Amino acid sequence: MTASGWEPDPDRILQLGLSFFGSRALLSAVELGVFTELADGPVTGERLRSRIGLHPRGARDFLDALVAMRVLDREDGKYSNSPDAQRFLVRGHEEYIGGSLEMAASRLWGFWGDLTTALRTGGPQSEKKDGEPDGFDAAYADPARLRTMLAAMTGITLPSARSIAAKFPFDRYQTFIDIGTGEGALPVQVAAAHPHITGGGFDLPPVGPAFDEYVGKHDLGDRLRFWGGDFFAGPLPQADVLCFGHVLHDWDLDRKRELLAKAYTALPDEGALIVHETLIDDDRRDNLFGLLMSLDMLIESTGGFDFTAADCRQWLREAGFRKTWTTELTGPHSMIVAVK
Questions:
Q1: Residue (of 325, 328, 318, 338) closest to 278 by Cα position
Q2: What is the C-alpha to C-alpha distance for residues 122 and 111, in angstroms, rounded to an integer?
Q3: DSSP string computed for 64-115
Q4: Which residues, listed in sequence order, are joined to residue 326 by a DSSP beta bridge?
Q5: pLDDT surpasses 80 at 138
Q6: How far is CA 337 from the centre of its chain?
Q7: Does pLDDT of 188 surpass 80?
Q8: 3-class DSSP state for residue 200?
Q9: 249 catalytic residue (yes or no)
Q10: CB 3.0–4.6 Å: which of 112, 139, 210, 330 could bond 159 by disulfide?
């Protein structure tokens, strides 16, 4: 017994060390399309096993493990999606986040097996290690693969995009451009919530058709447009409000500062910059997801890392911004706002 009255217990440590068991089961379920097969309602275990091509030996344990993880329900021998799975793990739904999990299963799963090497060498363990194009570079060279990646990004962006649209004071501004916009989930949410706002998104030119299609589906093509370019190759487009959403963590500190300086130049006086990330808490103790995302940047990139709000606000002040504040969004996500 410790002085605090807490008895040390190995179970927590074992559960942490073996938590990849559950992670792998969920990733396999996404890959197999379990949740999509159950989108229309409950199915018996045998029928579901046959549909997704499982061997009889492991099928029951696999499906019941998903029940224990609260992503499936089971009643009278029939399996169905939990409410969360029905909303976020059915392929084709706008809020589908399974695309990111599919990429985690096909790419990150193997790379994270080399975390020890990354920690010892400081070098990436992704395709970059062998001098090959990484997953993002390869996707931009393949239109079909790019669409899949962009849709995955939309699914994970939507909750925060809605929160930004609700919590940022867009009533004070007229124009908004999202830098690194993907399909345009954030501009669409902002424009839908604030009918006076015009603007759009900036990204590499191959993203343009997907952006136009997504914006068109939401009937916002008259107010939102696409700017194509490389944000390191030239100036950023000008607007009253700019946003970097999950952009800065991809780069080393010099590149981060370069992008913040470009944003400062592009904004008018009183203009605002939004930095949206899975920010690490300032004491670096609580936001485990943010810390693990930073380790993912170690594995995936040559210099990227996640950061605290205090870190970013300091960089923003160094860039010239006069006022900053931090607002929590959804889950582990937050935004920092800086005013020129």
A1: 328
A2: 14
A3: HHHHHTTSEEEETTEEEE-HHHHHHSSTT-TT--HHHHHHIIIIIHHHHTTH
A4: 336
A5: no
A6: 19
A7: yes
A8: strand
A9: yes
A10: 330
Which residue bears the tokens 């808490």? 281
Taking the CA atoms of residue 21, residue 27, residue 28 and residue 33 in that order, the dihedral angle to the nearest 10 degrees is 150
How far apart, in whole angstroms, are the C-alpha atoms of residue 79 and residue 180?
A: 39
pLDDT at residue 169 tops 60: yes
Cβ contact 307:282 at 8 Å: no
| 3-state SS, residue 288 | helix
101-110, 175-184, 312-321 — which is least confidently predicted? Answer: 101-110
pTM of the shown model: 0.91
Q: Specify whether the CB–CB gap between 205 and 180 falls below 8 A.
A: no
Q: Is residue 287 packed enough to be buried (19+ CB in 10 Å), middle (13-18) or exposed (0-12)?
A: buried
**Domains of the chain, first to last:** 10-88 (1.10.10.10), 158-339 (3.40.50.150)
Beta-ladder partners of 328: 334
Q: Shortest CA distance to 189 belongs to which of 161, 151, 154, 159?
A: 161
The distance in angstroms from the start CA to the end CA of the chain is 55
Catalytic residue among 55, 194, 249, 333: 249
Q: What percent of the chain has pLDDT over 90?
A: 84
Whether pLDDT at 135 is above 70: no
Amino acid at residue number 176: F
Spatial contact of 193 and 170, defined as CB atoms under 8 Å apart = yes
Interhelix angle 253-266/309-319, nearest 10 degrees? 50
The single-letter DSSP state of residue 121 is: H
Lowest mean pLDDT: which of 28-32, 98-102, 161-165, 177-181? Answer: 98-102
Structure tokens at 204: 């590499």
Sheet bearing 78-81, strands edge to edge: 43-44, 78-81, 72-75
Query: Cβ of 139: how many Cβ atoms within 10 Å?
Result: 20
Q: What is the mean pLDDT of the chain?
A: 94
Q: DSSP secondary structure string, 203-234?
A: E-GGGHHHHHHHHHHTT-TTTEEEEE--TTTS
Task: From 301, 297, 303, 299, select the one nearest 114 (Cα to Cα).
Answer: 299
Helices H, strands E: what count in the chain?
Answer: 16, 10
